[in-house]
Amino acid sequence: MRLLIVEDSQRLRESLADGLSKAGFAVDSVPDGRQGLINARTTDYDLIILDLMLPGVDGLTLLREFRQSRGTTPVLILSARDRVEHRIEGLRSGADDYLVKPFSFDELLARVEALSRRSRGVSANTITIGGVRLDLAAKEFAVSGAAVSLTPREYSLLEYLFLKAGHTISRAELEEHIYDQDHQVWSNAVDSAIAAIRRKLADAGIRELIETRRGHGYRVPAPGPASGAPPTPSRPASIRERP
Questions:
Q1: Which of 17, 38, 168, 215 has the lowest tally of Cβ within 10 angstroms?
Q2: Which pLDDT value is given to residue 182?
Q3: Is the pLDDT of residue 234 over 50?
C-alpha cells in the first residue's frame, strides 16, 4: 500500500521511509506542508503520516484544507506536541490517530497497519479467500497452514488485491499503490508479478484465485461473511424480480 510522509526533519523522514519500505509499503516523502498538500490532493494514498511543525504550510492547516477538499485518506499525526489539548486539536481537525515523538517504530507500524486495515473495512487480522489465508499481522499468506513464500513486492500486490476483494483493480492502480514514486516500473512488472504469484499458489494447490479481466485488470473474489472482511453487497433485485 502507498503512504505519504510529510516531515521536515530529513533524518527522521528518511528513517521512516526506509523502515516502512522494508515493511512492504510504497512510500513517498516530502519535507514541507505545501508540497504535502499537493501530493495529498493529487495521489490516491492509503495513509498519510503528518508532522505538525512544517515549513510552508503547517500540519494542521494542511489537514484542515485536505479535509475541506473532501480528502478521505486516513491521517496519522506524528508530532512532538505532546499536551492533551494538542492531541484533541489534531483529532478534531480531521486526524485519525496521533502519536507523540519520540516514539517506537514498532508502535508506529502497528498503528499504520490498523488504520490501513480499518480504512478498507477489515475488522480482523485475517482474511480467507479461495482457500488462501492472509494474516495481516504476520504479513504472510498460507494454504492449509503452510506459508506461501512470496517476495515483498509479490506479497504487497496480493495483499492489495485481498483488501480490495470483489473489485477489479487496474494495472495502473496496482503500480500506483505498490511501487515507490522514484522506482522505475517496467511495462510488464505487474503482469510478471501476478504470473509468479499464480505459480506459487498453484504449487500449493490453489488455482484460478486471481482472475484476469482483459483490458481492465485483476480481481480476486469477495470473501464470505466469516472470513474477516465484509462481503461485496449483492445487486438488489429489480421490481420485476421481486415476488
A1: 215
A2: 56
A3: no
Question: Is the CB of residue 34 less than 8 Å from the CB of residue 57?
Answer: yes
DSSP line for 54-110:
-SSS-HHHHHHHHHHTT----EEEEES--SHHHHHHHHHTT-SEEEESS--HHHHHH
Q: Tell whether omega for the bond before 102 is within 30 degrees of 0, i.e. cis.
A: yes
* CATH number of the 126-219 domain: 1.10.10.10
Only one residue has cell 499525526, namely: 77
Instruction: Indicate the pTM of the whole model.
Output: 0.75
Domain ranges of the chain: 2-119, 126-219
pLDDT digits (tens, 9 = 90+) for 183-208: 555 668 899 999 999 999 999 999 98
132-141, 147-156, 231-240: least confident range: 231-240
What are all long-range contacts of 76-80, with beta carbons under 8 Å and residues at least 24 apart?
A: 76/47, 76/48, 76/49, 76/50, 76/108, 76/111, 76/112, 76/115, 77/50, 77/51, 77/52, 78/7, 78/49, 78/50, 78/51, 78/103, 78/108, 79/51, 79/52, 79/53, 80/53
% of the chain exceeding 70 in pLDDT = 88
Sign for the CA dihedral angle at 44, 50, 54, 58 comes to positive
